[in-house]
Design brief:
By secondary structure, the protein is α+β, with helices and mostly antiparallel strands. It has 14 helices and 22 strands. It has helices at 14-25, 68-77, 80-88, 108-121, 176-183, 205-208, 243-247, 249-257, 274-287, 293-297, 303-312, 321-324, 326-335, 392-408, and strands at residues 6-10, 29-34, 54-55, 63-64, 94-97, 100-103, 125-128, 132-137, 144-148, 153-156, 158-161, 188-193, 198-199, 212-221, 224-235, 239-241, 262-267, 339-343, 345-346, 355-359, 376-378, 386-387. Helix 1 (14-25) packs parallel to helix 4 and helix 9 (274-287) crosses helix 13. The longest helix is centred in the last third of the chain and has 17 residues, at 392-408.
Length: 417
């Protein structure tokens, strides 16, 4: 009887389950460890409970990592369409909503259900409520020794660490995987909130709480523009939120960790070109000359925004437009195209959707095997790779899980290997 490769997968999240299924399909004997009572808890919260599986508008611009050439090769092995086929072969119907991929049911539980069914079908052994706290490699032997928090020991030929990150977890949780990587000599880049809300110490923030609007947002670090996004901006009682804010929040996290000054400039008229905006502003003044400055702004932006603009200009709402003069009104209108908000921090890790940072991407090869310890693999958020909103982080989970699982089981995914 042929001896099967014995592989341990630590962490039963999106990447861990994908790795376990893939390795088992290659004929390996796979044991999947999960510290929680049930697998895939985070999957249920993705995409507001609908699970945005991936995105057809795929590009490397959506990812942050040290080596995009290596990352691109990985996505060439297991692409968005490969992920669709992977799930459809397990029985999940997938649909396209403007490039965003979702389960046809629009229920994240459907994704988790088919993954669990496939784990059962491939006879993956699941050990739940088992937090692996120690990982050793016997030098000179093809053997890894794992120990859980209860003192149990386990022995395997290969190990895939797919523990995920502390994103969306209570303070102090989610760091186990990084600790295991460090035990075997790996570097871990500072782990910070990735897709998360931003805090502001501006006095007007509470007055704008609840406002949602389309906006262009530029990110400034030490006064220099480093990024810009466009989309729905949301004001909260502590700062700003929304997809465009999430998209560059990881840059804010690192900038603030380095003690840099961070602010944003908001364009409340993102679809207006300068010429049309100037014409509109002057025309309104000529037509509403005898009205109040509040009347002048009525019908433009959200009233809360207009009131903040007037207050910052030192104007009372009942002052006449003609009395104020067009020069002053034009300054208000210009400010609405570059409205400054100082950023005082990022929201807590438990509010983040993903984390930036993780195990050094340069310390593993393109098959996600460690360059330090042969037979050790990484997948998912464990690795210092993160993406923007829109299904890109789950795509990394599927792709990295597949590559780590297939290669750990001996089925190389790269030509010439």
């Amino acid at each position: 009887m042929e001896n099967k490769m014995k592989i341990a997968v630590i962490g039963a999240g999106a990447s861990g389950m994908t790795a376990a299924i893939t390795a088992a399909k290659q004929g390996a004997e796979v044991t999947l460890f999960e510290k929680n009572e049930r697998v895939g808890k985070k999957i249920l919260a993705t995409g507001n409970g609908k699970c945005n599986l991936g995105n057809l508008e795929f590009s490397m611009d959506q990812y942050y990592c040290e080596d995009k050439d290596k990352l691109q090769k990985m996505f060439g092995i297991f692409s968005t369409w490969d992920a669709v086929a992977f799930f459809e072969n397990m029985g999940l119907m997938v649909k396209d909503k403007n490039g965003y991929l979702y389960p046809y049911s629009e229920q994240a539980s459907s994704v988790l259900d088919v993954l669990r069914m496939e784990l059962d079908r491939e006879k993956v052994k699941l050990i739940a409520e088992a937090e692996i706290v120690s990982l050793k490699h016997e030098d000179g032997e093809n053997l890894f020794v794992l120990k859980d928090a209860k003192g149990n020991s386990y022995f395997f030929e290969k190990v895939i660490i797919a523990c995920g990150s502390p994103a969306s977890l209570k303070k102090g949780d989610g760091m186990t995987g990084y600790a295991l990587a460090k035990m075997l000599g790996h570097k871990v880049k500072d782990v910070v909130p990735g897709l998360v809300q931003l805090k502001s110490d501006e006095t007007f923030i509470k007055a704008l709480s609840g406002v949602r609007c389309q906006a262009g947002i530029s990110l400034l670090v030490n006064g220099e523009k480093v990024d810009d996004e466009k989309g729905e901006l949301q004001f909260t009682d502590y700062g700003i939120s929304g997809i465009p804010v999430f998209q560059f929040s990881r840059q804010v996290s690192y900038a603030m960790k380095e003690g840099k000054d961070v602010s944003v400039l908001v364009d409340f008229y993102p679809d207006q070109d300068d010429k049309a905006f100037t014409y509109m502003s002057r025309l309104r003044y000529d037509v509403l000359l005898d009205k109040t400055v509040e009347n002048y702004l009525t019908g433009t932006l959200n009233k809360k925004i207009n009131m903040v603009l007037l207050k910052q200009a030192g104007l009372k709402p009942d002052m006449k437009a003609q009395e104020v003069g067009y020069k002053t009104i034009w300054e208000i209108m210009k400010k609405s195209r570059a409205f400054p908000i100082h950023i005082s921090g990022v929201n807590a890790m438990e509010n983040a959707q993903v984390c930036a940072g993780g195990v050094d991407f340069g310390q593993m090869n393109q098959e996600l095997e460690s360059e330090i310890v042969k037979g050790l693999y990484f997948a998912g958020e464990m690795v210092d790779v993160d993406g923007k909103c829109g299904g890109y982080n789950l795509q990394w989970a599927w792709s990295s899980g597949y590559i780590a699982g297939r290669n750990a089981a001996g089925g190389s995914t790269f030509e010439g290997d």
